[in-house]
TrEMBL record:
Residues 7-172 form the N-acetyltransferase domain. It comes from the Bacteria. GO terms for molecular function: acyltransferase activity, transferring groups other than amino-acyl groups. It comes from Chryseobacterium aquaticum. InterPro entries: Acyl_CoA_acyltransferase, GNAT_dom. Keywords: Transferase. The lineage of its organism: Bacteria, Pseudomonadati, Bacteroidota, Flavobacteriia, Flavobacteriales. SUPFAM superfamilies: Acyl-CoA N-acyltransferases (Nat). This is GCN5 family acetyltransferase.
């Protein structure tokens, strides 16, 4: 990565699906190697990606036209977040960050951190004041990013068959 690299954030299209699915498979394997239980039970899968794209939830971060990171951004809709063991910081509109997956070609280059900066700018541009995200207890890489980016631990939610740590960041 150099300063000359062209970095773009855009909605995913159906023509991106195969590349996105390949990146998610790489992330599933990375979680397994890291000893994490996250994403080890058949979710997310190819249908998840198709659904994200068809609902306009899927976004990609590209570097020089190559997809580096995939993420699903969902506005105001995560039923599991209605019942939290703990408390959210806000009650208004929010964006949920789900399914962050970094391509092996860009792993270890700070792309997930860059993604969170871009997501914050995007969410602010939509006049939404808060980002909510959850992750597995054993997803140490994501927990570290959330801490570095100033997310507040709010409690636990039950999602995808397990208890997840839930975080929120108030933007405005």
């Amino acid at each position: 990565m150099t300063h000359d690299d062209l970095i773009e954030f855009r909605k995913a299209t159906i023509s991106d699906k195969d590349i996105i699915w390949s990146i998610i498979q790489q992330s599933i394997e990375r979680r397994r190697i890291d000893g994490s239980q996250q994403w080890q039970n058949g979710y997310p899968n190819e249908k998840t990606v198709e659904s994200d794209i068809s609902k306009d939830f899927g976004f990609v971060l590209t570097v020089n036209g190559n997809i580096a990171v995939y993420v699903a951004l969902i506005f105001n809709d995560e039923p599991a977040y209605n019942s939290i063991e703990g408390a959210w910081l806000t009650t208004g509109e929010f964006v949920v960050v789900h399914r962050v997956a970094v391509s092996e070609n860009f792993a270890g280059k700070g792309m997930a951190k860059k993604l969170f900066d871009i997501i914050e700018d995007y969410v602010k541009s939509q006049n939404v004041k808060s980002i909510k995200v959850d992750t597995n207890y054993d997803n140490l890489a994501m927990l570290k990013i959330l801490e570095q980016k100033g997310y507040t631990y709010c409690g636990e939610v039950f999602l995808a068959g397990g208890v997840r740590k839930a975080f929120e960041k108030v933007l405005i």
